[in-house]
Amino acid sequence: MNIYDFNVIDNNGNEVNLGQYKGKVMLIVNSATRCGFTPQYSELQKLYEKYSDQGFIILDFPCNQFKNQAPESVEEIQEFCKLNFGVSYPIHAKIEVNGENAHPLYKYLKKEKGFSGFDESHPLASKLDEILSKDDPDYKNNPDIKWNFTKFLIDRNGNVVERFEPTTDIKVIEEKIKELL
């Protein structure tokens, strides 16, 4: 099994096979419109604009599992992202990334790359630790997605090569993308 075996639903309700992205470098992200990390839409759009002509694509999957921070419809999310951040990369249907109803794509991504910790220098890292520790004191030892804007980097052959937590600086992500392009 690899990344190209999965189907997802686009923002129009159509089924899309990820095999259509063979040969591209992908960044897969779970997003939310009402999160402290929401300004990352702007950073992601800049990456997309800078590298899309070199075979780079961002696949965005809104998720409402983290403190109800993406309650809107996919149409409203797409409009919000376009108006506020100029987002032009694909935004897909809302999904769940954890739990019993987690999308099979995310079950696979988490199996391939588990949680490796937050960037402690990020101003929101301690707040995330506080929130997550209340629900699960052992949260650091399971592969679940911890929050919105967790990202997975996929190489041109469909391999999951890196997982970035929302606290990872965009410059670190950009360097890894450039290595794969």
Quick tags:
single chain, 181 residues, alpha+beta, Glutaredoxin, four-stranded mixed β-sheet, two-stranded antiparallel ribbon, 6 strands, globular, Glutathione_peroxidase, oxidoreductase, peroxidase, Glutathione peroxidase
Topology overview:
Elements: E1 7-9, E2 15-17, E3 25-31, H1 40-51, E4 56-62, H2 74-85, H3 104-112, H4 125-135, E5 151-154, E6 160-164, H5 170-180
Parallel strand pairs: 3-4
Antiparallel strand pairs: 1-2, 3-5, 5-6
Family: Belongs to the glutathione peroxidase family.
Protein name: Glutathione peroxidase
Active site: 35
How is this structure best summarized?
This protein is of the alpha+beta class. 30% of the residues lie in helices and 16% in strands.
Describe what you observe in this structure.
It comes from Herbinix hemicellulosilytica. The protein has 181 residues and is an alpha+beta fold. It has one domain (3-180): Glutaredoxin (3-Layer(aba) Sandwich), CATH 3.40.30.10. Helices cover 30% and strands 16% of the residues. The chain is built from 5 helices and 6 strands, in the order E-E-E-H-E-H-H-H-E-E-H. The strands form 2 sheets. Strands 4-3-5-6 form a 4-stranded mixed beta sheet, with helices on one face. The radius of gyration is 15 Å and the shape is globular. The model has no long low-confidence stretch (mean pLDDT 95).
Tally of strands:
6
Largest sheet: 4 strands, mixed
Q: What is the SS-derived class?
A: alpha+beta
- The helix content, as a percent range, equals 25-40%
Distance between the termini: 23 Å
H/E element string? EEEHEHHHEEH
Q: Which fold name is given in CATH as the topology? A: Glutaredoxin
Helical segment count? 5
| Cross-sheet strand order for the largest sheet | 4-3-5-6
- As a percent range, the share of strand residues is 15-25%
Q: Label the CATH architecture.
A: 3-Layer(aba) Sandwich
CATH level 1 name: Alpha Beta
Q: Please compute the radius of gyration using only Cα atoms.
A: 15 Å
Shape: globular
* Count of discrete domains: 1
Report the average pLDDT across residues. 95
Q: Can you say what the CATH homologous superfamily is? A: Glutaredoxin
Taking pLDDT < 50 over at least 5 consecutive residues as the criterion, the unreliable ranges are none
Pfam family, one: GSHPx
Keywords: Oxidoreductase, Peroxidase
GO molecular function, one term: peroxidase activity
GO biological process, one term: cellular response to oxidative stress
